[in-house]
Design brief:
With about 375 residues, the protein is of the alpha/beta class. It folds into two domains: about 70 residues, no CATH class; about 300 residues, Alpha/Beta hydrolase fold, catalytic domain (Rossmann fold, 3-Layer(aba) Sandwich), CATH 3.40.50. It contains eleven helices and eight strands. The chain has an eight-stranded mixed β-sheet, sandwiched between helices. The protein is globular and about 50 Å long. It starts with about 20 loop residues before the first helix and ends with a helix. The N terminus is likely disordered.
Length: about 375
C-alpha cells in the first residue's frame, strides 16, 4: 500500500512507498507521557519527533526526484508533467500531464480525465490517453490530463461516497474545475475555448464538471462514462437518477459514445442515463457504436476506435465553433502519417465499429477527413 506523509505541511507527489505520520497524534501521546515529568522532557521529545519526521521525509524527497527524472517524456509532443494546486478546505497538488502543439498559442484546451483501474488508486500510472491526445493536438489543441486526488503522483486520498454516485462525480468536478481555473490563467491557453472530456469514470466526471457551467467550457465529451458500484443495490438506476440531476444543472452541450458490448455498463443502463439526462434539460448527442472488438468500454484506447469517433468528434466541435480541422498531421499516430491519399470522408458518419476495426485506410480517412 502506498501511503503519504499526510500531517506534514507539504505533499509528496511521487508514487513511492511511503509511511503516514500523524504528528498531532504523536504530540498527544508525548503530552500524556510527559504530563508529570516537566516541560523539559516534553520539549526534548518534541524536537525528536520533528527530526524523526524530517529523517523519514528526506529519502522520500530523493525518491520523488528520481522517479520524476526517470519518467519518459515525449519531446515531440511537448509533453510536461506539472503540479496544479486545488482545493480550499483541503488543498493538495494534483499531478497533471500537459501536451501542447508547437507555436506560441494561445491554444484551445482539452481537459482529459482518467478512469479508475482495478486496484489501489495510488498505483495507477500517469494518464496520457495516447490516441485522443494525438487527435486533439492535430487539431491545434493543448491537452491537460489531471490525476485525481490519490492517483499516481497526486496528493491527498481518493475517497468515494457510500453508494452516492452523484456526489462522487460532483466531488471530483470541484477539483477538475480548479484545474480549469489554473490552466485558464496560463498565457498560452485560450480561456474561452475549453472542452472537458473523459473515459469511464473520467467521462462521468466530465459530465459532473458540466454542472459547474464554467464560462470557458464550450463542450463535454463522454466516452463510456459512469461509475460501476456493483456492491451498491440498484446502482444502475442510481446512475440514471444522477444523470438526470446532472442534465438539469448543465447548460453545456455534450457528446456521448457507448457500445453494446461494454463490459461495465449495459445498453439499457446507458440508454436510461441518456434519456434521463436529456429529459431533464441536458443537451447530449448519443453515438451508439454497436459492438467494438472485445469491449466497447475501451474503444478510446485503441487505434481501431478512431474511425468510429473521430468523424463524430470533428462534427461536434464544428457545431460549437471550435477547431475541428487537421492542422498538424505530425501529431497523428505514426500508423496514419503516411496516408495522404484516400477517398473523400463523410463527416459525422460513423460506420459500425466491427466493420471498421483494423482498417488502416479507413482510419487515416477518418483522422484526416477535414484536412485543408
Amino acid at each position: 500500500m502506498v501511503a503519504r506523509l499526510e500531517m506534514l505541511p507539504w505533499e509528496i507527489n511521487a508514487t513511492v512507498r511511503r509511511t503516514a505520520i500523524d504528528e498531532d497524534f504523536l504530540y498527544v501521546k508525548v503530552a500524556s507521557l510527559c504530563a508529570s515529568n516537566g516541560s523539559d522532557v516534553f520539549d526534548m521529545l518534541t524536537i525528536f519527533i520533528k527530526r524523526l519526521a524530517l529523517l523519514l521525509l528526506l529519502p522520500l524527497l530523493m525518491a520523488s526526484a528520481y522517479c520524476h527524472a526517470d519518467e519518459s517524456l515525449d519531446a515531440s509532443l511537448n509533453e510536461q508533467v506539472i503540479s496544479v494546486p486545488v482545493g480550499k478546505a483541503h488543498p493538495v497538488l494534483l499531478q497533471a500531464t500537459l501536451f501542447k502543439p508547437s507555436g506560441p498559442g494561445p491554444f484551445p484546451l482539452v481537459v482529459m480525465n482518467h478512469g479508475k483501474d482495478v486496484g489501489h488508486a495510488d498505483e495507477q500510472p500517469r494518464y496520457r490517453a495516447r490516441y485522443a491526445t494525438r487527435y486533439f493536438l492535430s487539431r491545434g489543441y493543448a491537452v491537460v490530463l489531471p490525476m485525481l486526488r490519490g492517483f499516481a503522483g497526486s496528493g491527498g486520498r481518493f475517497v468515494l461516497h457510500d453508494c452516492d454516485i452523484e456526489a462522487d462525480g460532483r466531488q471530483q468536478a470541484a477539483d477538475i474545475g480548479a484545474v480549469i481555473d489554473y490552466m485558464s490563467k496560463q498565457s498560452d491557453i485560450d480561456p474561452h475555448r475549453i472542452v472537458v472530456a473523459g473515459q469511464s469514470f473520467g467521462g462521468w466526471n466530465a459530465l459532473a464538471v458540466g454542472t459547474l457551467n464554467h464560462p470557458g467550457v464550450r463542450g463535454l465529451v463522454n466516452f463510456s462514462g459512469g461509475l460501476s458500484e456493483p456492491q451498491c443495490p440498484w446502482w444502475g438506476s442510481h446512475l440514471a437518477d444522477a444523470a438526470a440531476h446532472y442534465g438539469a444543472d448543465t447548460r453545456v452541450p455534450s457528446i456521448w459514445f457507448y457500445g453494446d458490448n461494454d463490459s461495465l455498463f449495459s445498453t439499457s443502463t446507458w440508454h436510461s442515463m441518456h434519456e434521463r439526462y436529456t429529459a431533464s434539460g441536458g443537451q447530449a448527442e448519443l453515438v451508439e457504436v454497436g459492438r467494438f472488438m472485445n469491449d466497447s468500454h475501451n474503444m478510446m484506447a485503441h487505434l481501431e476506435g478512431m474511425p468510429v469517433w473521430v468523424p463524430k468528434m470533428d462534427t461536434f466541435l464544428g457545431k460549437l465553433g471550435l477547431p475541428n480541422r487537421l492542422v498538424q498531421a505530425r501529431y497523428l499516430p505514426a500508423e496514419l502519417r503516411s496516408g495522404t491519399e484516400y477517398a473523400a470522408a463523410q463527416p459525422g458518419q460513423a460506420a459500425p465499429a466491427e466493420a471498421r476495426a483494423g482498417q488502416a485506410s479507413d482510419l487515416a480517412e477518418a483522422a484526416t477527413g477535414h484536412s485543408e
